[in-house]
Specification:
This protein is mainly alpha-helical. The chain has one domain. Helices cover 64% and strands 0% of the residues. The chain is globular and about 65 Å long. The N and C termini lie far apart (40 Å).
């Protein structure tokens, strides 16, 4: 299957899950690299909230990802009903349980992930989180997963608008997008003036941006579920995490 003009594969038929299961080892490895780059922080947060120290979480995550490769474990994703999020949290929880039972500190089995996982950066990020007692490991994992999907969609839009010569428009509307897409009272006039647009043109531009954002979120979620019909429920669930 050929990539689209923006370099990404069509999400309706070529998902991250399908690529992780690919018999083509190079394709599966590339997909795993993308998984690590996009979702290692939610996995790391899950381990830390389960009581792992930084270095233990680092070793566990290396070992867990290596196991996914060795055992081609992603071929058995059906037990999580096709959701990558559900499969990874379930599998990582089992892996942590086994690791604690063995009481063995595993050496990092392969250095392949060293360029992908910047543990110094994610530890710094983790230390600045403001978790509460109500933030269970599963809740933190899912919220960070949703946050990563939001970030991915926003960065994709930022690149697209920059390519179209509309970077200033996007960066001006970005704070509006990040706080839910609603213009605050009194925002329209100054933002429109800043962009040299009428207030009506600003509202039209925001409406288009929100439409593109919804499409990107759907595309991002589509990469992490087995079937397209799962997208609406998964997206609604993830966005609902920010309202709890």
């Amino acid at each position: 299957m050929s990539p689209r003009a923006d370099g990404r594969f069509p999400t309706t038929h070529w998902t991250l899950i399908a690529r992780l299961k690919s018999a083509d080892e190079a394709e599966a490895a590339q997909a795993l690299d993308e998984l690590c780059a996009q979702y290692h922080y939610p996995l790391y947060c899950y381990l830390r909230r389960r009581g792992c120290a930084h270095h233990d979480a680092q070793d566990l995550l290396h070992d867990f990802l290596a196991r996914l490769i060795r055992q081609r474990a992603l071929e058995r994703m059906e037990e999580a009903r096709g959701r990558l999020r559900g499969y990874l949290s379930l599998s990582l929880g089992r892996h942590l349980h086994e690791w604690r039972q063995s009481e063995a500190r595993r050496e990092r089995p392969i250095s392949h992930f060293d360029h992908t996982l910047d543990f110094a950066a994610i530890e710094h990020r983790y230390r600045h989180e403001r978790f509460t007692d109500a933030d269970t490991p599963d809740r933190v994992f899912e919220r960070q997963w949703a946050t990563e999907l939001l970030r991915q969609a926003i960065e994709t839009l930022a690149a697209r608008y920059a390519q179209k010569g509309k970077a200033a428009l996007f960066e001006t509307l970005r704070p509006v997008l990040e706080r839910g897409g609603c213009l605050s009272v009194g925002d329209s006039a100054p933002l429109a003036a800043q962009l040299g647009m009428s207030e009506n043109a600003l509202r039209v531009a925001l409406h288009r941006l929100l439409h593109e954002f919804r499409e990107e979120m759907q595309a991002a979620v589509r990469l992490t579920v087995e079937h397209a019909e799962e997208v609406p429920a998964e997206l609604a669930y993830l966005l609902g995490l920010f309202q709890r």
